[in-house]
Amino acid sequence: MGKGFGEHDEEKIGFRSPGNYRAERGSGSASLPGGGWALRLGAVDPTLFRGRRERKLGENVAVRLERVRKRFGDVEVVRGIDLDIRDGEFFSLLGPSGCGKTTLLRMIAGFEEPSEGKVYIAGKDMTGVPPYRRPVNTVFQNYALFPHMSVEQNIAFGLRMKGMAREEIARRVAGALELVNMQGLEKRRPHQLSGGQRQRVALARALVNEPEVLLLDEPLSALDLKLRQELRVELMNLQERLGITFIFVTHDQEEALVMSDRIAVMNKGLVEQVGATEDVYELPRTPFVARFLGDSNLIPATALEPRRVRTPLGEFVLDEEDALTPGQEVLLSIRPEKIRLFRERPNLPNVFQARVDDIIYTGAENQYLLEAGGMRLTVDTLNQDILEPGHDEFTYDEAVWVAMTPEKLVVVSETGADGGAPA
User: Fold this and answer.
1) Same domain, yes or no, for 148 and 242?
2) 258: part of which helix (H) or strand (E)?
3) Whether the predicted pLDDT of 254 surpasses 60
4) Fewer C-beta neighbours within 10 Å, C or N terminus of the chain?
5) Does the pTM of the predicted model rise above 0.90?
6) Is 102 exposed, middle or buried (0-12, 13-18, 19+ CB in 10 A)?
7) How many other CB atoms are found less than 10 A from the CB of residue 89?
């Protein structure tokens, strides 16, 4: 890792760069025993440098949840979830604290049994199957390392419990240490490691068992921002190299967007929306998803015609793909970065006037808080030396023209777990 983490030079270590080697299922030099991951030095996989949305995922279902419910006493924390997670997918369960995402992960792991419904892993019903007999391993938020054991002893613990031969354990542990680039620190105890290093040991301990599915319960939340950002990329690269399914629990929206192939947004024990990261961000189905996954301006609207609505900001026209029933009440969602501001009235649809109530400088952006039609709107513009039309800089209390083009407005008509009609 680069400088700036406050660690000694020997501790500045991360996962190997994707250009150094790739890991693949099968046999080969330096392979882990039992047909495990082979580390082939010098081999470069060009697919690692593609965007995640270009990746081709397996068609097989790695994990299937069918009408899964979980009750603790009279409280139902998971409320009938159906979900398919594909083989080789980086899948995130995203939601606020108390939404049921960790409970759902624990049911996949076998630490909790569903009150109703079924969990399938690799097509097999996991009802009554204990955690140690499931083809999964879990990386916990608090690392869960044994403080009295060294790095190599922690990594080898599960293998020893399985009664594996000493030579085989040694080979697997060496391979796992190389995978997370922790060679040379085998004899250290957890208290002698940085937070990032402890998380790598926890990851190596999970991967040494060669699971079909790796479960990660907010593994980065205890780390500082800079280290979290670094480890995000490393986890993504590691998952692509290994090709196994990662199920990642987080409350961090940016983390989920950066790392995932698909996201399930959870709220009050339900999955409100599941889909590719870009689809969920750009096309939220419920008010909760629009607000929780990034910032969003939600504007109440009543349909006058299939593509024309009345709002507190005036009458708007919608995109051709939207077709409403006259009288239908909906919410219109628009992201702050999709709104354009002008000093002079532009020749664009859906234009209205607003007043700049506040300006927040965030470094890369200026965030404008506007007042219009009794509503408060948020607009984000990039700080740049060369300003483009619609991205001028404005001052406090200035009157501005606001444009919301039809293709940037998203009709939100579903209510989600919060219930009630959109308002």
Assistant:
1) yes
2) helix 253-259
3) yes
4) C
5) no
6) buried
7) 23
Other beta carbons within 10 angstroms of residue 2's beta carbon come to: 8
Looking at the 3D structure of the chain, how many domains does it have? 2
The enclosing domain of 408 has a CATH number of 2.40.50.140
* Residue 280 host element (H or E): helix 277-282
Alpha-carbon distance of 408 to 292, in angstroms, equals 18
Domain that includes residue 325, residue range: 295-412
One domain for residues 245 and 347: no
pLDDT band at 17 (very low <50, low <70, confident <90, very high): very low
CA distances from 183 to 49, 177, 180, 207, 380 (A): 26, 6, 8, 16, 45
Quote the mean pLDDT of the chain: 82
Q: How far is CA 337 from CA 312, 331, 390, 392, in A?
A: 21, 18, 11, 13
390 burial (CB, 10 Å; 0-12 / 13-18 / 19+) is middle
Locus of tokens 């399985």: 162
> Is pLDDT of 408 > 80?
yes
30, pLDDT greater than 60: no
